[in-house]
Amino acid sequence: MKRQNFFVGYLFIGIGVFFLLKQLKIPIFTDFYSWPTLLIIIGLALLIYSYRLKEYQSLFSGTLILGLGLHFHGMAHYDFWINHWAMYTLIIGIAFIIRSLKTKKGFLLGSAFVIISLIIIFSIKLPAWFDWVYHLLSYIEAYWPIALIILGIYFLVRKK
Q: Whole-model pTM?
């Protein structure tokens, strides 16, 4: 039980600092008075907790939440920020890689996510013989919720 208190402690410190800075209205921090900052704080709290207590399975969750917070903050405040669905798969890939640095599991999957995401994000126009990629991506963009439903059913019916 004491180990769980560490995470709650880090979380309360981060949220307390957030609201204190919001009350003090320090001009340099005004862009951070938003809900993505709370995601960043939760992600950082999970990462600090994971490293301090060597509970490395939480590195994935912490990196994912931190990455989403940074992404949403970037979209809200920076014109150059990339607003593309492949950013989410990039964040997932980075989370797998970060976790694999300590657990030695998921590095290949994370690398595949990162490479595919970067190719999709930075490919403005592929050669004509790659048109099948655009068709495949349009199907994936339209029907990706079905994959989540199938994955959920699999987790419900699989035997341990």
A: 0.70
